[in-house]
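Q: How would the structure tokens look for this protein?
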Amino acid sequence: MAEFMRDTGSALTPQKHAYDIFKQYILTYAFNTMTGKRGSGKPIIIDDTTFKGKDAGDTGRYHFIPQYTGAGITGQNPTIRGNEKTLDEFYMDLKIDQIRQAFAYRGKMTDIRTIWNIREEHKRQLANWFRRETEMNLIKALTGYITDGVTELTGSEIDSTALVTGEGRCFRPDYANDKFSTVSVSAANSTNSAILSAIDAADTMNTEILDNLQDLAKTAGKYPIAPIHCKDGVERYMLVVHPKAAVALRQDPRWEKRVLASYTGAKALDGDPIATGAVGVWENIIVKEANYILTAEGSGKKIARNLLLGADAAVLAYGEQMTYLEDNDTYEHRFSTQASEIRGIKKLSFDGTDLNVAQVVCAI
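A: Here is the predicted structure in token form.
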């Protein structure tokens, strides 16, 4: 009986396809310039060690030790011994599960009857599907729609669940008396229902709230939001906004003048991938646009839950990175491809506080 055999190292082996698909989507998804290893100073952590050897459904644990900010030992008389301080340690559990997609075609003449290379088209479709799915899942996790790494809010939970943890992690604009101000939203009132009740259609994204975000990131809540490390040595934050919020910013009379000045004063960002595709830079806030920012609507109003990100805001944890399989049933003339990953995505939350992400909710 004659059998097909593929040489070792062939470019057509499933492992090679898996690497190609993973590389294609991870390098092109919306957060690619904001992704790095833990300690890289990027908003999204890729972790392939915590869950190494674990399977779908397993839970791993992330640890956090906050920076100590108490008083030092002053004067010559007090001794060090007996006056040492202790560090607090907190943890967050994260679950992983399998995510996969597959395509198939039938008929031995299919390849001949189409202008497509079916295998290559399947690979392209798989890469694009995983790219889009990863973008949406990251936004859902950062917004609080993914609660444990894999489980999503559904039904009435979406509007009734508090989507931030801790105080100083949700803000919204308020337009009254012909001017904007920034309002802090408590964790208990961060539900879609509560915000829709409190917000007005005029409370749109604006430059006044951008003026306040940098200070709010440093001072609001139990822990400051850790800034992103940029190439020019300046510490900045990333504001990821809905396309309609970006339009509102561009229509703000202060926007063009100040953004142009910011770009002129921050030339070093031109070579920094973190600012690639930015709508603009406002002081030390890099503004980017994302298609999948989550929205909610009710009572004739619609809101966007824009995201203010610092370093280490969320983790994308892999138990198993991309695997790719082909199934060729010769007798049925059926060819199928499948790609799968075992992973979980969650915003980092320790000690009752979302660590390095806040929401900036506005009307759109």
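The chain has two domains: 14-65+89-152+315-352, 157-312+354-363.

The chain has eight helices and 18 strands.

Upvote if useful.
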